[in-house]
Amino acid sequence: CVIYIHTNQFDYESSLCYLQVKYMNQIKLFIDLVRLKKPIGFMLLFWPCAWGLTLAYDFSSNLNNYFFYLILFFLGAVLMRSAGCIVNDILDKEFDKKVFRTKNRPIASDQISIKLAILYVLILCFLALLTLLNFNSYTIILALGSMPLAFTYPLMKRFTYWPQLFLGITFNYGLILGWTTIQNQIDLLPILFYLGAIFWTLGYDTIYGFQDIKDDEIIGLKSASIKFKDNAKSFIFLCYLILCISLFIIGYLINSSLYFYIFMVLPISHLFLYQINKFNPKNPDKCLEIFKSNNFLGLLVFINIFVGKII
Fold first, then answer.
1. What is the dihedral of CA 277, 279, 283, 288, to 10 degrees?
2. pLDDT given at position 25
């Protein structure tokens, strides 16, 4: 009897340990699936939202609403980026298996099934919808209208050399939403800024694309990195120049003080003296480092807008 009890106890503890390990493994796979350990993705989605919100906000009023919406945009960026990663991996499963950098992703390596991945997408989108419902109806409608862009982007590299352009249109859409959250209408100011931000994404994602350029050419995928591989620096320079011009126009239109133009030295220096100067298309590690540095660039632009609004 004693042996029986001990045996049952041992089996119970073993089963419990197995379930804990299995549960922790699923959490780890989910974190890998949505790239939570790589925050650069959702930060690049968040910064345009913060830019648009800051550009539209009246800082002479109560700041509680500003920080409330800033937090909502951050949550929305994390949720939608996570859902987007899963959709991207579902659509690119067969391609990811053939690319060294992506072959061990949870879906490509069959560690997570397509059915479970779709369930994750539905849950994340539902949570994102709950976040979105805190905004005005105009912003909600605009945000829902962007969903087709968000979930069809991964298909673009199969048909066009401009998937980075589609990414720019999608990733910077939050700039418009940030503006309409406060103003409840679309004006010329955010549209001009939005266009400049699209070229920013076109530039940094072209840099990012050089990590996989050899594999992409072999399996027949397209990208701006491939299209401009012989004159990449010139193309990226042009993209970043358009962003900077749009920032100067924004500063002029909001009647910024001299401090705004002085602070412009920071993003300009980062873009041209660091990113363009250090860019080496034959060095994947350097390409990734420069790509990630755009999180810092997003912060610099945010500071610039903030300075332009309050000083």
1. 130
2. 83
Burial of 42 (0-12, 13-18, 19+ CB in 10 A): buried
Residue 60 has pLDDT above 70, yes or no: yes
Burial class (CB in 10 A: 0-12, 13-18, 19+), 16: exposed
| Concatenated DSSP letters of 135-166 | S-HHHHHHHHHTHHHHHHGGGGGGT-S-HHHH
* Residues recorded for the chain: 311
What's the burial of 171, exposed, middle or buried (CB within 10 Å: 0-12/13-18/19+)? buried
In angstroms, the CA 105 to CA 36 distance is 13
Number of CB atoms found within 10 A of residue 25's CB: 11
d(CA 280, CA 303): 28
In percent, how much of the chain has pLDDT > 70?
Answer: 93
Q: Model pTM?
A: 0.90
Please give the structure tokens belonging to residue 294.
């755009």
Closest to 302 (Cα-Cα) out of 207, 218, 223, 200: 200
Q: Distance (Å, rounded) from C-alpha 79 to C-alpha 6? A: 46
**pLDDT at 20 (0 to 100):** 63
Cα separation, 141 vs 53, in Å, equals 17
Q: pLDDT digit string (tens) for 176-227?
A: 999 999 999 999 999 999 999 999 999 999 999 999 888 888 888 889 999 9
> Helices 173-183 and 188-209: crossing angle, nearest 10°?
160
Measure the CA–CA gap between 151 and 170, rounded to whole angstroms. 9
**Token pair listed for 67:** 């920080």
Please count the CA atoms within 13 angstroms of the CA of 141 that sit on its side-chain side: 7
- Tell me the residue type at 265: V
Number of Cβ atoms within 10 Å of the Cβ of 37:
8
Handedness of CA 242, 248, 250, 252 (dihedral sign): negative
